[in-house]
Amino acid sequence: MKFDTTPALDLWNSRTPRERVLLCVMMALIAVLALWYGVVQPLRQGALAASEARAAAMARFSEATLAGQRIQTLQGRFGAQRTAAQMESLVTQSAAANGMMLDRQQANGAVLTVWADAADARTVFAWLDRLQARQGITVASLTVAPADGGGVQVQAGLTSAAASR
To answer: For 49-105, what is each residue's pLDDT tens digit?
Structure first.
């Protein structure tokens, strides 16, 4: 199909030079507006939406990472049942770090029994609290009796939190 451009050229040539300039300026402005509202604005809005979506995704990723770290921490503390040797090591280290002097330890299955003949009662209970909070080792049985010199004698049966479930 062939277009006949003669009527358009006749219309253009019938305009005065001033009208032709004004029509060119008007067409240029229409082209700029079409480019602005048809290309630039949609690209800006898309970039802004993508930036907001990225920020939201990063926030969700950070929350998920923190939650994963908390889960791993809890699984490390309470997840797997510990062997008697692992429990003895953790209990000994924890006691020393908390100022407790353990006189004896004995493993019997999943329970580790520890004895302290002369300990401060506040130190004992603070240590048992920290042992549960930090290591996931709970008290299965506890016997406390007064000792000479104002302290207490303690016999505590300790078990891994995984074993006590």
So the answer is: 999 999 999 999 999 999 888 877 776 655 556 777 788 888 999 899 988 889 999
State pTM to two decimals. Answer: 0.50
| 150 vs 116: CA distance, rounded Å | 14
Nearest to 154 by CA among 103, 99, 93: 103
Angle between helix 84-97 and 121-130 (nearest 10): 130
Q: How far is CA 81 from the centre of its chain?
A: 25
**Cβ 135 vs Cβ 159: under 8 Å:** no
Which pLDDT does position 88 carry in this prediction?
87
Tokens of 73: 């921490």
pLDDT greater than 50 at residue 165: no
Nearest-angstrom CA–CA distance, 12 and 23: 10
DSSP per position, 40-82: IHHHHHHHHHHHHHHHHHHHHHHHHHHHHHHHHHHHHHHTSPP
Averaged pLDDT score across all residues of the chain: 87
Please state, as a whole number, how many other Cβ atoms lie within 10 Å of the Cβ of residue 69: 10
Q: How many CA atoms lie within 13 A of 103 on its CB side?
A: 10
Radius of gyration over every alpha carbon of the chain, rounded to an integer in angstroms: 40
